């Protein structure tokens, strides 16, 4: 996959220009800005000119209903977003649990190469993470997966307690950033048929009926014996405890873990 590098300033300018020129929905619904950029600029440019800009990539190999775009986020040097090219509001949308649902987490995990390109070095799986925020904590009403480095303190906490991770969802022994995450182990170097949205809906009682109240985070984790896999984390909105279930909090958009 070809890597196209865009500076934050360039993308800010492109997005600002688009929002000023597009008018209508893009201006009156700021929560649609991400979708307008992808469907209004990236996809047409890819289809007409074989150029995904201002996105880094537009993949329509399986059609737009199963396609996705990779876009440089405005925050941080290394944060990218995966956005489906079919309209899906967020984690609460039934489309993420459909029998033929695209495994967007799998696609996003492969797209972490863009993080490596921004850093000019390849990171081990344990240093990288994916996150989808709950409906209460997101700023855009278009499904997007944050792709970036994991926080160093989260890395240390997960590795110190990894012997407790199995294939069933269990509460972590200690909160992460003050929030009571649950975790489960997913074996393998690639997600393959393991769709995190479905693992949440099928494995956590009540989650399928209230998906919008959950956040999902995927972080690579290598066992002491060298076994490769992932830790999948979930947290649920608890407004009384001031917890809006924003799994993005476990990421470090400065990517300190990936710098010499």
CATH architecture: 2-Layer Sandwich
Q: Tell me the name of the CATH class.
A: Alpha Beta
In what range is the share of β-strand residues? 15-25%
Distance between the termini: 26 Å
In terms of per-residue confidence, which ranges show pLDDT below 50 for 5 or more consecutive residues? 1-14, 16-26
Q: State the order of secondary-structure elements, H for helix, E for strand.
A: HHHEEEHHEEHEEHEEE
Structural class: alpha+beta
Count, helices: 7
Largest sheet: 10 strands, antiparallel
Radius of gyration: 18 Å
Whole-number mean pLDDT: 90
The CATH homology group name: HIT family -  CDH-like
Please report the total strand number as a whole number: 10
The domain tally reads 1
CATH topology assignment:
HIT family, subunit A
Q: What kind of assembly state do the chains in view correspond to?
A: single chain
Shape: globular
Helix content: 25-40%
Compile the SSE list and pairings:
Elements: H1 8-22, H2 25-28, H3 33-49, E1 57-59, E2 68-72, E3 80-84, H4 104-110, H5 113-119, E4 128-132, E5 145-150, H6 152-160, E6 170-171, E7 182-187, H7 196-203, E8 214-222, E9 228-236, E10 251-252
Antiparallel strand pairs: 1-2, 2-3, 3-5, 4-5, 4-8, 5-10, 6-7, 7-9, 8-9
Protein model, in words:
The protein has 260 residues and is α+β, with helices and mostly antiparallel strands. The protein has a single domain, classed as HIT family -  CDH-like (HIT family, subunit A), CATH 3.30.428.30. Helix content is 26%, strand content 20%. It has seven helices and ten strands. Strands 1, 2, 3, 4, 5, 6, 7, 8, 9 and 10 form a ten-stranded antiparallel sheet that branches. The longest helix has 17 residues, at 33-49. The chain is globular, with a radius of gyration of 18 Å. The model is unreliable at 1-14 and 16-26 (pLDDT under 50).
């Amino acid at each position: 996959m070809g890597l196209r590098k865009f500076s934050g300033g360039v993308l800010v300018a492109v997005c600002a220009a688009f929002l000023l020129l597009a008018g209508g929905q893009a201006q009156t619904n700021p929560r649609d800005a991400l979708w307008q950029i992808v469907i209004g600029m990236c996809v047409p440019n890819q289809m007409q000119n074989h150029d995904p800009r201002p996105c880094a990539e537009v993949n329509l190999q399986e059609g737009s209903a199963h396609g996705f775009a990779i876009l440089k986020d405005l925050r941080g040097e290394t944060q990218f977003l995966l956005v489906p090219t079919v309209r899906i509001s967020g984690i609460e949308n039934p489309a993420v649990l459909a029998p033929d649902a695209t495994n967007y987490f799998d696609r996003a995990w492969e797209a972490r190469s863009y993080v490596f390109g921004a850093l000019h070095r390849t990171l081990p799986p344990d240093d990288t993470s994916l996150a989808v925020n709950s409906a209460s904590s997101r700023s855009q009403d278009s499904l997007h997966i944050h792709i970036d480095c994991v926080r160093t303190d989260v890395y240390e906490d997960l590795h110190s307690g990894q012997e407790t991770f199995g294939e069933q969802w269990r509460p972590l022994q200690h909160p992460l950033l003050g929030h009571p995450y649950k975790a489960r182990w997913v074996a393998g170097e690639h997600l393959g048929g393991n769709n995190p949205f479905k693992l949440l809906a099928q494995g956590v009682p009540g989650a399928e009926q209230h998906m919008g109240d959950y956040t999902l985070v995927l972080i690579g984790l290598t066992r002491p014996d060298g076994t490769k896999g992932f830790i999948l984390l979930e947290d649920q909105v608890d407004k009384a405890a001031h917890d809006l279930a924003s799994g993005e909090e476990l990421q470090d958009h400065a990517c300190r873990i990936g710098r010499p």
